[in-house]
Every structure is written in structure tokens, then in C-alpha cells.
Amino acid sequence: MEVPRRLHPPTLTLTLANAASAPPCAIGPKQKSSRRNGMRQRSRLEKHGGPEEEEEEAAPEEKVPSEEDLLEETSQLLDISPARHSRLSSEDSVSEETLESEEMLEEEARRKSEEEKAAAKEREAQRQQMSVEELVQSERSYLRMLELSTVTIRSSLQKLQPPPAGLDSMFLYIQEVMDVSTRLLSKLDQFQPGDPRFLENLCESFLALSSDIEAAYKEYLANYTHVTVLENGYKQKEALWREIVTIVKSAAPEVNASSLSFFLVMPVQRIARYPLLLQTIQKHTDPAHPAFALLEQTAHTSVALNCRINEYKRFREVADKYKKTENLTIRDKMVRLNTHSIAKKTARFSQHIKHETGMAPKVVDEEFDALEGFFAVLDHGILQLLENVETYLLNLQGFLECRTEEFDFDMDGEKSAVSYKEITTALRQWVLPTFERRMRTLIHKPLCALRDLLVGPRNLIRKRFHKLLDYEVIEGKASLTFDEQEVVNTYKTLNTLLLNELPRFNGVALQMIWSMLGTFSCLHKDLTADMEQLFQSFAQQLPHSFLSDSAFWEWAESAVLDGARNLQALCQTVEETLNAPAVQPLSPSSQRCLQQLTGKHGSGKIYQVTSSVVGSRDLDLNLTKGELVAIISGADTRGDKRRWLVDAGGRRGYVASSKLVRYHQAAENPPPSPHPSLPESSTGNRRYSYSPGAPPLTSQPCFQVWAAYSFTARGNHEVSLQAGQPVRVLEPHDKRGNPEWNLVEVSLQCSPELQSRAALSGGV
Predict the structure, then answer these.
(1) Would residue 5 count as lying in a domain?
(2) Rounded Cα distance, 362 and 355, in Å
(3) Which structural domain, as residue segments, surrounds residue 733?
(4) Which residue ranges have biased composition labelled Acidic residues (predicted)?
(5) What HEC string does 378-441 produce?
(6) pLDDT at 724 over 60
(7) How far is CA 418 from the centre of its chain?
(8) Which side of the chain, N or C, has fewer Cβ within a 10 Å radius?
(9) DSSP labels, 498-561
(10) Torsion sign over Cα 14, 15, 21, 27
(11) Which of 269, 301, 321 is the last residue of a domain?
């Protein structure tokens, strides 16, 4: 039997938004607020039946249903039990509380995030402030340490006896470093570190002083290698090093320093710390800060500054290595020879031969060639100018040594002679010595210093040429070894160094030359003014002071020319007299040869051989020194006047004309002397030999000569002479026949022997 099924009433399905069944999603503040309002509205709908029912409730004429009626009606429509409805209401209230708690949590998280950002920003500001203060305080401490080393320690070291060698060169360029650090601190002290404008002031100050910082530090760092060498030299002397350590420790006990390098290395470390400090400040600075871009530029500038200083130091090290001039002996050069050096020099020589023969092209650098050519012109000009100045000073010194005013010319009664003597004395004692001293100080010493400076560039140019030959040999290779790459780097470094520094050197050297030439002109202008002032004080006492300017200059020109002609004639006479051979007694055979040649050719053609002659061609004669010949012809068959045809007393042949001088026969009576001679009675008792007991010598022809320079007697058998003093030669040799000593007569004194080779200028 069939059981009838239960018929379900038709149901009405309504779709209700349920917060609990909605999928989770990110809810913003506005979404949360709208969702909360929507749920409240839905709650009101469920309680009050929707907006339509509210309108019905509000209408007075309509009957408002009760809540139970509405619930019952809704339950019937939805087929929902009262328990089900209560459960839905509780779920809605729980969802609303959950949303409110989530909102509160999100607000708390947002507040904490903002607080953390503010705290992080504050920490960055504090770190920035600490970095700025570190830069300023470390700069101040750094400057104080430098002042301590240069003032206290250096002054104490200078008081040591003896002071350490090269002490000043250890502190070279440190004053420039201190000056630029002082200027940087003075700019930074214009604002306090907490001032908002301090960061901008820091960047502007560093950028303004960057060129001065680079100039000061690059010279100090380039010289620091020399500082370490000097300090190592001090360490080799234990006593000196103990004193240095004691002074350093007593001067700075708070830093526990034990050597000079503790202080002298500080500039090397300081210049490298600037980029680190500036980058640290930049790291803790907000990119939105107004001075951030300027701070970034300052940090980049400090890094570039360090790179340029390092590059300059590398160039200086290469220059110092190759510009030195080594004075090596042959043994030292032989020790340095090895297979590597021989192969290197052979390759250079081969490459040079290829250049000269055109087998290989040269590397042409027009810029360097122009600089090198200008340097060569400067080098030659400086050396030539220095040689001329030294000759000028030598002649001036010779003029000052010739004191003509000290000679007595028996003209004391004449006013003009007295005036000339006073003028000459003033010139020699005041005007000319002052001029000479200024010449040596202002021109000669700078020229010598400039000449010494030429050695470095000259050596670098020569070394650059050698490295260029090495570079050309390996230039075409695809891959280079380490040594070959070092050769390439060295050549490029030398080439760049010369291209950068040689124009500056040429410019400074040329400027110094022009300055010295101007100084030379000013010195002569001052000399003229001093001499004019001197002569004006004696103008009325001079004999030609009444003449007009044109007449005076005409008289002065004629007087100078006449004096020059007379002096030239006197010099020629003295030269001929000095060049005349000393008259020596002839042997009997030479006497017979002389008589034979004189009778055949005459006395005017007799010549004497000055040195031994060995014939090297046909018809040449072999003659000995002192042999007499007669001139037959003044040229050979080809017309060569350097070979004379002579008669040697039976032998005839050719002799070089330079080996012959005219023969002067000894005369019994000497030529008259312009100086007063001694009376005859005073000469008889002064003619004695070296030994008092020896018999008197036979009478010899005597002649008068002048002493070429002063001679001081070294014993009783010698006599002292002054330069230019006249003497009479009584015997041209000593008792042993040595012609280097003469028996002379000087005023009232007579010396048995005087070295004619050293003290006599010749006969008159």
C-alpha cells in the first residue's frame, strides 16, 4: 500500500547578505564604514520589516502590525523557526563586533607605523648630527696635533747638539696643510652643527677650498716617502733616536706616541678620511633635504680629489726614479751588466738603427717635439748666459785685484792726479765691490740654481726616448706579459708627465731668464748712477770739467782710442819679447854651423828648432831641439806654406813651420830699460853664486824683466817679489847650469836663485 507523500508548501527563497559567509577581502576605512551602515540597515529591515513597513507605521491612518505578527508572518514566508532567527541575530552582532575590533587593530598598527617612521627619522637625524660633529671635532683635533708636532717637537729637536740632519725637510709642506685646515675650520665655525644652514655651509666651504686642499696635500704626500727615509736614517743612530723618542713622549704623553711618523702620517690619513666622513653624512641625510644634492656633489669632489692626489704621487715617484743622475764608475757599470740589460739595450739600439735607416717608422708626437725643442733652446741659452756671467765676474775680479792707485807715480802735487786716485779708490773699495756682490746674489746664484734644475727634465726626456724605443718594439703584440705591460705603463706615465709639467717648467724658466736680464740692466743702471754721483763730487777738480757734453765725449773717445792703440802696441811688443827664445850659449859645433849658415844665407834667415822633429814624408828632415837651420823657401813645391825648405848645414829638406822660431843671437849690451837702473858700483859686490866659497862666474849678458806675479822667498837664497816689479837678470841659470833658476838683481837686494819659470814674464 502506498503511503502518501507529504506535500511541501511552496517556499520563497530570498538572498540575504551574510557577513559571516562573505569571502575575506581587504577592507579599507570607507568600505568598513559603508559595510557597517549596510548591516545596521539590514538589522532594521529584519526587525521592522523594511522601509515600506516604516512608512506604514508612520502613517496614522494605517494599522501598525505588532512585532510578533511580523515575526510570525516572516517565519511563515521564510519557513524559519524562532531559534533560527535568534541564531542569525547573534551572528550579525558578532560580525559587527569583529569589524570594530579589526578597525581598532588597524588604527593601532597605523599609529605604530607612523611612530616608527618618526623614530627612524629622528635616529637618522641624530646619526647625521653625530657624523657632522665627528668631522668638525676630528678636524680640530687633527690641527692641534699638527701644531704640536711643528711647534713643540720641532723646536725641541732643533735644540739638540748637533741638530738631526735634514730636519727641515721632514716638516716640508706641513705648514701649507695646517693653513688650509685652519681656513676650513674658520669657515665651519660660522654656524653651529645644530643650525639648519650648517650642512650647506660645510659643503660650500669644502668645495671652495678643494683646489687649495689638493695643492697642499699632493705636495706633502709626494714628499712623505722622503720623510720615512729620513726617519729610518735616524733610527740607525741609537743615541739620537733615544733622544727623539724622549722628546716626542714628553711633548704628547696623552697620545702614547713613540716616533715622529705618528704625527707626520696624519695628513696622509686625513685626506683619505674626507670621502668617508662626507659619505657617512650623506647616508644619514634625507634625500628631500635642501642640501642633499650639494652634499652629494661634495662627496664626489672629495673622491675625485683623492684620485688626482694619488695620480700626482705616482707621477712624482716615476719622476724621482728617473731624473736622478748617477755617477757610476766603469766597475759599477760592469757589475750592472746582465743578460736582461744587454738584451734591452740591444733591442733599443736595433730600433734606433731602424729609425735612422728608414726601415721602421717613428712615433711622431708633434706636441712633445715642440716642447722638447723649446726646452733645448732654453737649456742652451741658460748655460750660455751663465758662462758669460761667470766670465764677466772673473774679469771684474781681475780688475779689482789690479790696484793702480797704490803705485807711486811721483804726481802727488797735481790736483787732477789726486782726484783720479781718490775716484779710483772709491770705485775699487765701495762702488764696484757692491756691484759685484749684487751680481753674484741676484744673477749668478739664480742662474746656477736654474742650471741644476735643468738636469731633471733633461734626464726625463732621455729616459722617455729609451722607453719609447721599448714601447715601439712591443706595440704590435696582441698580448703582453706583466713586464711588457709595465714598460707600456712607464712610457705612458713619462709621456703624460712631460706633456703636463714641461710647459710649466719652460714658462717658469723663461720668466726667470727675462727677470734676470732685467735685473742685470737695473744693476748697471744703479752702477752708472753711483759712478755719476761719485764723479760729480770731483767735477770741479778734473781738468776737462769745463768742456761741453759734445766736446767732452769727443775728447773721451779720442783719448780712449789713443790709449787702446798704445796698449795694443805695448802688448804686441811684450808678446814678441816673451815669445823670443831664451838665449843659450852654443856648443862649438853649433857655433861653426851658425857661422856657416850666416855666411851663406845671412843672419835674417837663421831659425832654431823648438822641439824634436821626426820626418814622416819624403824629403823631410829629422832634427833635434835647439838645432839651427836656414830658411831657403817658405813653401814646398805644392805651395804649402806650412812646410818650409831649410838648410841644416849641409842637409836640405822640409820642416813644419810651427817647429821653427827665429834665432836671436846674444848681445853683449842689453837694450835700454825704461826703468832706472842701479849704479855700476852696486852690482859688482852682488854677483855671487849659490855657494859663497865658489869662484866667481864669468860675465854673462844681463837684461831686465818684470815679475809676472808675486813671489815669496822661502829661504835666504831667494828674494821676494811683487807683481810687475822690475828685476835685472844677471845669470840665466844656477851654479849647476839649471835654466829654471836665475840670478837676479832687485833694487838693493840680490838673490842667488829665483825660479824664472814661475815668477818672470820675459826680457825687455
Answers:
(1) no
(2) 6
(3) 718-750
(4) 93-106
(5) HHHHHHHHHHHHHHHHHHHHHHHHCCHHHCCCCCCCCHHHHHHHHHHHHHHHHHHHHHHHHHHH
(6) yes
(7) 54
(8) N
(9) HHHHHHHHHHHHHHHHHHHHHHHHHHHHHHHHHHHHHHHTTGGGSTTTTS-HHHHHHHHHHHHH
(10) negative
(11) 321
Distance in angstroms (rounded) separating the CA atoms of residues 725 and 5: 176
Chain-centre distance for alpha carbon 215: 14
In tens, the pLDDT along 60-90 reads: 444 555 655 655 555 554 444 555 555 656 6
| Lowest mean pLDDT segment, chosen from 56-65, 159-168, 228-237, 497-506 | 56-65
Task: Quote the pLDDT of residue 681.
Answer: 40
Q: Check residue 3 and give its pLDDT.
A: 42
Where does a domain end: 621, 647, 662? 662
Structure confidence at residue 119 (pLDDT): 78
Q: State CA 554 to chain mean position distance.
A: 53
State the Cα torsion 255-259-264-266 to the nearest 10°: -40
Strand order in the sheet with 628-633: 652-656, 643-647, 628-633, 606-609, 660-662
668-708 per-position pLDDT tens digit: 444 444 444 444 443 334 333 333 433 444 444 566 777 76
Identify the band that residue 275 occupies on the pLDDT scale cut at 50, 70 and 90. Answer: very high
Cα–chain-centroid distance for residue 119? 57
- Confidence bin at 113 (pLDDT 50/70/90): confident
All residues at 6 or more sequence positions from 199 whose CB lies less than 8 Å from its CB, including other chains: 132, 281, 285, 289, 291, 295
Does residue 256 lie in a domain region?
A: yes
Do residue 558 and residue 502 come from a single domain? no
The answer to whether position 598 is within a domain reads yes
Q: What is the mean pLDDT of residues 708-734?
A: 77
CA angle 372, 374, 378 (to 5 degrees): 115
Same domain, 616 and 504: no
Please state, in angstroms and rounded to a whole number, the distance separating the CA atoms of residues 631 and 645.
6
Neighbours of 429 (CB within 10 A): 13
Domain of residue 172, CATH code: 1.20.900.10
Task: Answer yes or no: do 163 and 214 share one domain.
Answer: yes
Q: How confident is the model at residue 603 (pLDDT cuts 50, 70, 90)?
A: confident
Triad 119, 124, 129: Cα angle to 5°: 125
Q: Are residues 237 and 265 both part of a single domain?
A: yes
Q: What is the DSSP string of 608-666?
A: EESS-B---STTB--B-TT-EEEEEESS-TT--TTEEEEE-SS-EEEEEGGGEEE--PP
Tell me how long the chain is.
764
State yes or no: pLDDT of 605 exceeds 80.
yes
Is it the case that residue 378 has pLDDT exceeding 70? Answer: yes
Instruction: Name the nearest CA neighbour of 763 among 688, 684, 703, 707.
Output: 703
Looking at residues 537-564, what average pLDDT do you find?
83
- Note whether 506 and 570 are same-domain residues: no
Residue 593 and residue 451 in one domain:
no
